[in-house]
Write a structure and sequence with these properties.
single chain; 2 helices; 0% strand
Length: 69
Amino acid sequence: MMAVQPPSSFPLPYPRPRPDCEQCMRLEGMGRAARAAHDRSGETDARVLLRHHYREVHENRATPGRPGC
């Protein structure tokens, strides 16, 4: 039986929120609040949401004709 190897970039990099994007700042605030409350699940959720938002909006994968933020 083969052992499962984590991705080479594990843990996944945490994207830097863009200060000009309200959604980035909201998700970053959620993560900070969860971290302060020692809510690791909430912190992880905020990171996943920020990573998804960042990929969809800020890495040129936004829907054509739809502005970034």
